[in-house]
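Recall that a protein's primary structure is simply its ordered list of amino acids. Everything else, from secondary elements to tertiary packing, is in principle encoded there. The following example makes that idea concrete.
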Amino acid sequence: MEQVSFSDNSLFFEKVEKTFLLHKKLIKKLLPEADVQHVGSTAVPNSLTKGDLDIQVRVTSEQFSISVQTLSALYELNEGSVKTDSFRAFKDDSTDPPIGVQLTIINSEFDFFWKFRDVLLINDKYRKEYDDLKRNFEGKKMHEYREAKNEFFQRIIETPEFKKL
């Protein structure tokens, strides 16, 4: 049973940023038209994080199929995640930090990771609320944390900040 643990992202910032830039360069070399974004809590200063790196790769619908093939050669398909015609999740647990890659079609239903990051950057109240949620789940079951996290982000979707993006 996987338990969740969080740390201040300042402990990971340098390593995460270096890893992000390395993988962004690699992805852009193979998918030059892709929009590659650092998302997740390590992209939001002063946040609590599990210490992993989340990358969103945004492509057009025409580029999606080849992007799935290309990213499959670089990363493992995240079998525990949703798989649709506009979204695929990949991972690499062997890197330091571990990496999650979310491939989305631009403006599709799953093209929200960058928006969540931006809302947390725009409104520190939401970032603090998210950190409080994490503190409440420290040492608890990962699936319970993920459920609470999903509820939190469902509320964020309804905010004026999110709707403007």
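Residues 7-164 form a domain with the Beta Polymerase; domain 2 fold (CATH 3.30.460.10). Residues 53 and 99 are 5 Å apart (CA to CA).
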